[in-house]
Write a structure and sequence with these properties.
Layout lengths: L11 H11 L4 H11 L7 H13 L5 H7 L10 E5 L9 H11 L18 E8 L3 E19 L3 E16 L4 E6 L5 E4 L2 E2 L8 H11 L10 H13 L5 H13 L1 H11 L6 H23 L9 E7 L4 E4 L9 H14 L2 E10 L2 E9 L4 E5 L7 H21 L9
Antiparallel strand pairs: 1-5, 1-12, 2-3, 3-4, 3-6, 4-5, 6-7, 8-9, 8-10, 10-11, 11-12
Helix pairs in contact: 7-12, 8-10, 9-10
């Protein structure tokens, strides 16, 4: 690890390296310096930046705090989250986290020594232990962005070197590793890998580097995510009406068998287990639908609202809040149920709400990880991201409890 410096000790090149990154900071990120060190915001973003430089020179901003703050400029953007779950959970504990921290800190490179023109590989530029159960790594990698305002031979957009910041969070409470990537505008490539429609193509770059150099762990297929997506949809569109539940119980206990016998008496080919199961399920759904139409759905609080549902690897998509005349919850419920019966759920659009703000994500499962992708450009505080992941993981724990053999008696 490099020796600690002060702003006045920096060379001209190191100052220019700092300014290169500082100019990319947003007002949201700058406001943290305003709150902590009373930096004046000024009338424009450029004035805000100038005030930060002035206060650094006057030592009104603690330089070590500034160096810790600066690399996190894209931590709270509209980032895509890629979540990996380890095979071996024993290594995910606070004691081991402290050991990893001590080993990793030797690889730390100060942000003022990162030159955009010279950077050739991924570097660790910040490391933070948070509440003893989270370890946040900040990496920077060489990248190119397309400068669409300047073209070669009036056809090909010119390329400009850039720094791309990526964040990896090890969480010993939730037992997972989260890669957070900011969907940078006009991004062309990172470390020679060309961007495609999504950021997924860059996942191996950072995760392989992280596992090779900092935290070697094997990840597993997060199979529970598909059931979790289904549970979220089912929970959101559940009628929540006690009267309907009462009538459904009466129907199942006193009417369903009689109706089944009537069906089977009229058509002998129905007398097989698979046909009987389908008929029984169809009768239950028809009766429940009519009860919902008659007695309506009751309001309820759920961790997430649902705005989109994809099945069969995205072949069929339903937007619950589509433009035009919105469908009722009852109508959405019927459509999504039909989709779920005919194909596997591949992606779900969820909305997490906090302090009257909405944070929409599209959740999908891949072979080795699952992802949550923001669909808006608004800022997302780290606290919100932590809450979303915590709430989503609650569905995993529900499955683990339901899969546990034996009954739990009330004390």
């Amino acid at each position: 690890m490099e020796q600690e410096k002060h702003y006045k000790d920096l060379s001209e090149e190191q100052i220019q390296n700092l300014l290169f990154v500082l100019e990319k900071t947003t007002r949201h990120h700058l406001n943290k310096l305003k709150e902590q060190f009373n930096v004046k915001s000024g009338g424009s973003l450029s004035q805000f930046h100038e005030n930060v430089i002035h206060d650094l020179m006057m030592e009104q901003i603690d330089f070590s705090s500034f160096i810790n703050w600066l690399p996190q400029l894209h931590l709270e953007g509209n980032n895509t989250l890629f979540v990996f779950e380890p095979v071996n959970l024993q290594s995910f504990n606070t004691k081991n986290l402290a050991t990893i921290y001590n080993k990793s800190i030797g690889s730390l490179v100060k942000i003022y020594n990162i030159n955009c023109e010279e950077l050739a590989d991924i570097k660790l530029v910040n490391l933070n232990m948070i509440d003893k159960h989270q370890l946040l790594y900040t990496f920077v990698a060489p990248a190119y962005i397309q400068n669409k305002n300047e073209k070669i031979d009036q056809i090909i957009p010119s390329m400009k070197k850039e720094l791309f910041f990526a964040y990896i969070l090890v969480d010993t409470n939730l037992k997972h590793v989260v890669l957070s990537l900011h969907p940078t505008q006009h991004l062309y490539s990172i470390l020679g890998t060309t961007r495609k429609q999504d950021m997924d193509v860059f996942v191996p770059l950072f995760m392989n580097h992280f596992r090779k150099n900092f935290f070697p762990f094997n990840y597993k297929d997060p199979e529970w995510v598909v059931d979790a997506m289904c549970d979220i949809v089912e929970e959101y569109f559940f009628h929540n009406n006690p009267l309907i539940e009462k009538k459904m119980n009466h129907f199942n206990n006193n009417m369903l068998n009689d109706l089944m016998e009537l069906f089977l008496s009229k058509e002998a080919s129905f007398s097989n287990p698979s046909s009987e199961l389908r008929i029984k399920k169809a009768l239950q759904l028809i009766y429940e639908d009519e009860l919902v139409n008659s007695y309506k759905m009751m309001p309820k609080q759920t961790p997430f609202r649902v705005f989109q549902h994809n099945t069969d690897k995205g072949v069929t998509t339903f937007n619950a809040n589509s433009k035009g005349k919105p469908l009722s919850l009852i109508e959405c419920r019927e459509i999504i149920r039909v989709m779920s019966q005919n194909a596997d759920t591949s992606k779900v659009g969820i909305i997490y709400s906090k302090d009257e703000k909405n944070y929409p994500y599209k959740v999908s499962k891949e072979e080795n990880y699952y992802s949550l992708k923001r669909i808006t450009t608004s800022t997302t505080e780290k606290e919100v991201v932590d809450n979303v992941l915590y709430k989503f993981n609650e569905y995993k724990y529900r499955q683990e409890i339901s899969d546990t053999p034996g009954e739990i008696e009330n004390s």
